[in-house]
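Look over both lines:
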Amino acid sequence: MTRKILIVDDDQKTRTLLKTYLEKNQYEVRLAHNGEAFLAEFQRYADELSLVILDVMLPDTDGFALCKIVRRKSNVPIIMLTASSDETDRVVGLELGADDYIAKPYSPRELLARIKAIHRRTGIDNAAAPRFYRFVGFTLDTVERTLLDSEGQVVALTGMDYQLLKYFVEHPGDVLDRNVLSEETRGRDSGPLDRSLDVQISKLRLRLNDGGKQPHLIKTVRGAGYVFSADVTAASV
């Protein structure tokens, strides 16, 4: 099964934002703006979908009705989105067969974390995760946990170097704040006076020949964090 997600939401900005964000994280995304369009897309791609995301409030129906229809035909995981803080909505959705529930407003990063959690439980990410990430002549092998340069020579990486680089290549173009990077690589937030992450990034830059006053691969976004600016190609072979 592919990492193909079908999203129905009546807000165009939300649909565009989620599609862009999820595609950067190697998901294939199909969109629908109302219930009718969703059902047409679902009928067409039902056997290929790894996840469905349903907005509860839609102009022509609601997410609960769509959830019931999906569950009669498929066991595909379902995440429901709602602007309501009422616990009743959450309970109803879960009783109808939804796998998870997120209240609005939410961040794309939170939704991505929920998607990844469901895919881990269902084995989708384990089967579909790319092995190689290629960028500006480098190849990161996530099975061997090695980095090769353009001449095929191994670039020495510490365990922390590897974790940090892997997270960067999995999120190219995203501005990643220091707390996110610290939590992903060290399992804890980075305090305001903790400069160890910055030191680690400086070391990684040197390994990537990205040192100097104006790094071109790992860029600092003042007041926001860091961004990996290289074009990254993910592949299984």
